[in-house]
């Protein structure tokens, strides 16, 4: 049967795809009187984490399940533009080491780019999704999300997440570690819960009960547990400490995953249920939780709300960049000068160099603002320090690929054009980022003197790996230092395969 496709003419239609370690989810919604209305959902139990091998590649079976799911989602999303779709990979996607082969195949199947997000960014998006389904108040809430390979903990109030952590435990990984044979013995459950508590120990004080007024759980694991405890009469609403104890006893009494016949438990959830119960039990015990509400909203809804915010020009990444500039005392006047020139250069070559995607403009703008943050550490090799910060810092709103792009741009903005920096990026992005790097280098060069004096309008043309600068008559001869620096820049770019001509 042919899947229904999204109408590309439906104004304000957006989609979010969450490539989790246990399940892949897709939701589609549209703006209706400034309200986001979800009208399509798809979930596949892919169990990607279960197919992750010790060498961090995935089995053919898991790969096939994943690509089949993404092909179905891609058919529904085929006619939506890239800017209306946000697709992210989480814990297991972060771990896969195969030279990007699986990511490329996944993007081809989906028909849209896929961003790999860090654990704390995942936590922020989970909170954003959950918070949109709760009453707005000033109370601090703890949000818990248990995925296939990781568990996210977030403290926040309103729509703002204040503390975020991602822990390396989930329903799939915990099941594989303690219940791989299918047996559920008392000592296995006890050891699994203890392992979860040990994982929580470093963050227990940060998320202690004295710091929040309520607890909300999200994700398929927690929703499944709520369905079971309510269906079996162990809780009237939400999940309680007492109901968790009865649930553990019921699993141990069954003795084997295949023998777990609990009202409310679906067949697709059964194989990883014991691991999920162990993780949530550890959270309840470590953080002294008595009762947990359960939300229907999670990461994918957070993605969708974030996407709508981007379209409405409310982009968290702008605030993140400003915060980094402030933290490392970046010279804002110099950054503004460089950005103004870079924008002018980009406008002239964006068609010939295929840099007309709005994300290209944003990345160049942010690289201009951040290119000197390494000076806050040391003047020597500050471009390297800046790249290190951008690679490893927690940057809310940015995916791992986006951080890698910014790091590459900052790393190569001066001195040798280190082409190896671009090898770390997805193949489809490399040439675009190289070209952005050339524009950034030229813009920095024009403001090397750090003065506010007027710079002449440059005419720029580009084709393939050639770029030509044209200055007003006699300007270069009147500015021999700039002319010498451009000549040196031509040598730097030539070593990277670019030809720079100027007159």
Characterization of this structure:
The chain has 503 residues and is an alpha/beta fold. Helices cover 45% and strands 16% of the residues. The chain has 18 helices and 14 strands. The protein has helices spanning 60-77, 91-95, 101-110, 119-131, 171-178, 186-200, 220-231, 241-254, 273-286, 299-311, 316-327, 332-349, 358-370, 382-392, 400-411, 427-446, 475-478, 480-495; strands at 13-19, 24-32, 35-44, 85-89, 115-116, 141-146, 151-157, 160-167, 214-218, 239-240, 291-294, 459-463, 466-470, 499-502. The protein has a 6-stranded mixed beta sheet, with helices on both faces. Helix 5 (171-178) packs across helix 9 (273-286), helix 13 crosses helix 16 (427-446) and helix 15 crosses helix 16 (427-446). The longest helix has 20 residues, at 427-446. The protein starts with 12 loop residues before the first strand and ends with a strand. Mean pLDDT is 93; it is low at 1-10.
């Amino acid at each position: 049967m042919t899947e229904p496709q999204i109408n590309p003419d439906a104004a304000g239609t957006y989609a979010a795809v969450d490539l989790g370690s246990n399940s892949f989810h897709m939701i589609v919604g549209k703006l209706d009187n400034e309200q986001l209305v979800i009208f399509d959902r798809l979930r596949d139990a892919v169990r990607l984490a279960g197919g992750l091998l010790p060498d961090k590649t995935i089995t053919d079976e898991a790969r096939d399940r994943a690509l089949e799911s993404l092909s179905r989602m891609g058919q529904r999303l085929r006619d939506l533009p890239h800017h209306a779709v946000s697709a992210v990979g989480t814990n297991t996607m972060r771990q896969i080491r195969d030279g990007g082969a699986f990511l490329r195949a996944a993007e081809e199947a989906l028909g849209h780019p896929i961003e790999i997000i860090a654990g704390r960014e995942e936590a922020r998006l989970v909170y954003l999704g959950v918070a949109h389904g709760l009453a707005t108040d000033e109370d601090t809430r703890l949000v818990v999300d248990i995925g296939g390979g990781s568990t996210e903990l977030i403290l926040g109030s309103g729509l703002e997440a204040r503390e975020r952590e991602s822990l390396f435990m989930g329903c799939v990984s915990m099941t594989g570690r303690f219940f791989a044979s299918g047996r559920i013995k008392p000592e296995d459950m006890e050891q699994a819960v203890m392992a979860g508590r040990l994982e929580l120990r470093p963050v227990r004080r940060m998320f202690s009960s004295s710091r929040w007024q309520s607890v909300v759980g999200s994700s398929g694991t927690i929703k499944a547990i709520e369905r079971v405890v309510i269906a079996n009469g162990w809780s009237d609403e939400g999940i309680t400490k007492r109901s968790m104890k009865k649930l553990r006893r019921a699993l141990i009494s069954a003795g084997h995953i295949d023998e777990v016949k609990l009202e409310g438990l679906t067949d697709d959830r059964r194989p990883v249920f014991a691991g999920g119960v162990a993780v949530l039990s550890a959270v309840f015990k470590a953080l002294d939780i008595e009762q947990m509400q359960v939300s229907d909203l999670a990461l994918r809804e957070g993605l969708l709300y974030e996407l709508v915010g981007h379209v409405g020009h409310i982009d968290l990444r702008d605030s993140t960049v400003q915060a980094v500039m402030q933290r490392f005392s970046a010279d804002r006047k110099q950054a503004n000068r460089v950005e103004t020139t870079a924008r002018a250069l980009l406008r002239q070559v964006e068609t010939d160099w295929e840099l007309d995607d709005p994300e290209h403009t944003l990345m160049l703008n942010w690289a201009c603002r951040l290119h000197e943050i390494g000076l806050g550490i040391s003047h020597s090799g500050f471009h390297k320090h800046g790249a290190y910060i951008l690679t490893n810092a927690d940057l809310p709103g940015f995916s791992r690929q986006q951080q890698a792009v910014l790091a590459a741009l900052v790393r190569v903005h001066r001195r040798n054009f280190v082409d190896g920096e671009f090898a770390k990026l997805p193949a489809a992005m490399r040439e675009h980022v190289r070209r952005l790097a050339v524009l950034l280098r030229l813009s920095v060069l024009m403001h090397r003197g750090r003065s506010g004096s007027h710079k002449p309008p440059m005419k720029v043309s580009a084709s393939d790996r050639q770029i030509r600068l044209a200055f007003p008559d006699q300007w270069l001869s009147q500015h021999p230092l700039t002319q010498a620096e451009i000549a040196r820049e031509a040598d730097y770019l030539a070593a990277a395969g670019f030809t720079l001509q100027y007159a």
